[in-house]
Amino acid sequence: MKKYLFISFFILSVFTSTAQNNDWKIEANNTTNYVGTPVANGGIGILPWSEPFSIRHIILNHVFDSDGPRGISRVLRGINPFLLTLELDGEQITKDNIKDWKQVVDMKEATHNTSFTGLNKAEISYSICALRNMPYAGLIRVNVKALDNLSLKVIQTMEVPDEYGKPTSVFKTMQDGTSRQLVFQTSAPSAQGAQHVSASSSFLCPDSTYTIQANKKDNNMYVEKQLKKGETATFALVAVICSTRDFSDPYGESERQVVYAKHEGTQRLISSHRCLWNELWEGDIVIEGDKEAQRDVRFALYNLYSFCRAGSRLSISPMGLSAQGYNGHIFWDTEIWMFPPMLLLNGEIAESMINYRTDRLDAARKKAYIHGYKGAMFPWESDDSGNEATPSWALTGPFEHHITADVAIACWAYYSITKDKKWLIEKGYPLMKEAADFWVSRAEKNEDGTYSICNVVGANEYADGVTDNAFTNGSAIRALQDATKAAAICGEKAPRAWSEVYKSLRIHSFDDGTTREHKDYQGIMIKQADANLLGYPLGIISDPTTLRKDLAYYADKIDPENGPAMSYSVFCVQYARLGEAEKAYEMYKKSFQPNQRPPFGVIAETATSQNPYFATGAGGLLQAVINGFGGIQITDKGIIQLPSVLPPHWKKLIIKGVGPDRRTFIKEQK
């Protein structure tokens, strides 16, 4: 525990000393222990870094190939077309010849902005964004102000990651009347042949004073301009990455989109990007009285908005579009942690996330069949096919059967807010029915007439092959109850077995009434909150005495070094609703602050890991604020606001754009 406290203090002190903020911007002027933060648009993720014009990698959403011969699926890094090298009078700009370096993440406009003085010859700034209006495109805008007469040259290259086969590059000059455009394209098959990926790029310059040329010998493209003292060069690079996952002709498509971007022009592209982000920010959280909390909470929301998009029918993996962590697969992280805040603040994104599951119901049916169960059994790790994608060495994953209940619960939550009966009849209830049938076939009847679920791994992954795991049984109860209600709305008769099982599933307790994590649990360390999830989000335990016992008992059982970020967020929700402001705020801070990394405060999965950005943790943080301090609750009848308390120093919490009616909920300090 002492080691954990030291690490937490160190991380927090570095973060707070290197970043400044206002309500919408996070500023960094120090690269110590630097961890980058992505810009994304739900289609691609771009990860800028600290060195001038550095882009670490591109992540392609739900574009998978095997990680080796007979390997498992892994989301692909994209061919990286955003690599720029800037030269002044023939000398390259590097981290060693710049000064006054600064980076700013502008959450309002979803841009990553860098500025510095290079070689004492020019003031240089550039802005990177993943265009919200073009889900496969990114834009880099560059400004160079000459401090003396100079020659400017900017070279663009493409990087092909090692998970690809042999690349091919071409340069094409597109001519349309008097309009001429040079397009640089690099394409390659993924190493195991599942995908072909093509990246195309072009410089966007305001006038003919810029010279744009292809350098076929060195496989790059460059733009040049002569600048007089005090003159500013302004231009942009647009690039598009397409794959056979989304297009039958990714080569032509990437070119066509670049040509489209050229005809739109930089200003129209950015204007549309800003307009769409303004629409996203209609769902927002405003905290009065704590600027640091305002930044942290909005940054979490900004990242979830970045990692998914309306109409995509895709969901969010634990690391979003920041990295290849967890191979880009979809887990329970979506339905339990990230989906609820999106459902409240952006129903169209939530619709895409739930469509991801309904689209893959057939694969879940097959998984149940091959394991000897009825209904549908969702995979612990899902790739684009919807099949089980957990590595075979990760033996606990395929036994985390609560995922099937988690998905069904999310379906009911979606209907409870939207009241979309057509969707429920056609999409939601068929999935919920299959999930309910799975749980009936999965549960085993005891001699006393109760039911047990045996040989599972719950949310606490340290407990392997247990009987009557609290969260697994609790989520199964909730899924069966929700399916029964959905059946009535759809004019169907729920099987009697559903109610028989959910009324009789065992939830074990210690002698003093504290909820027991599983039948044989004896108080050892756990990986993350499990039994406490019965209080929130499941709502199966509501008695304040039991809630307090459970919270007190399990608080020091969670692994302080390797436990993921979300546990304390559910503690925060429950303490806030119990009226314990100091305790709720303590848990709020523990839910993410030890996991923040400098200089922007990106969230890692654990207090000791270096694998940001952990989108699951962002979902937990948002629930701590929305559902805890804000008291927002999704019920069968819609959205209500429960009694809750704010941290003592917060003056007001405003949650905007909630639900289909875009309501505003306010909680003020008493």
Automatic annotation (TrEMBL):
<keyword id="KW-0732">Signal</keyword>
<protein>
    <submittedName>
        <fullName>Glycoside hydrolase family 65 protein</fullName>
    </submittedName>
</protein>
<dbReference type="InterPro" id="IPR011013">
    <property type="entry name" value="Gal_mutarotase_sf_dom"/>
</dbReference>
<dbReference type="InterPro" id="IPR037018">
    <property type="entry name" value="GH65_N"/>
</dbReference>
<dbReference type="GO" id="GO:0005975">
    <property type="term" value="P:carbohydrate metabolic process"/>
</dbReference>
<dbReference type="GO" id="GO:0030246">
    <property type="term" value="F:carbohydrate binding"/>
</dbReference>
<feature type="signal peptide">
    <location>
        <begin position="1"/>
        <end position="19"/>
    </location>
</feature>
<feature type="domain" description="Glycoside hydrolase family 65 central catalytic">
    <location>
        <begin position="298"/>
        <end position="494"/>
    </location>
</feature>
<keyword id="KW-0378">Hydrolase</keyword>
<dbReference type="GO" id="GO:0004553">
    <property type="term" value="F:hydrolase activity, hydrolyzing O-glycosyl compounds"/>
</dbReference>
<dbReference type="Pfam" id="PF03632">
    <property type="entry name" value="Glyco_hydro_65m"/>
</dbReference>
<dbReference type="InterPro" id="IPR012341">
    <property type="entry name" value="6hp_glycosidase-like_sf"/>
</dbReference>
<dbReference type="InterPro" id="IPR005195">
    <property type="entry name" value="Glyco_hydro_65_M"/>
</dbReference>
<dbReference type="GO" id="GO:0016757">
    <property type="term" value="F:glycosyltransferase activity"/>
</dbReference>
<dbReference type="InterPro" id="IPR008928">
    <property type="entry name" value="6-hairpin_glycosidase_sf"/>
</dbReference>
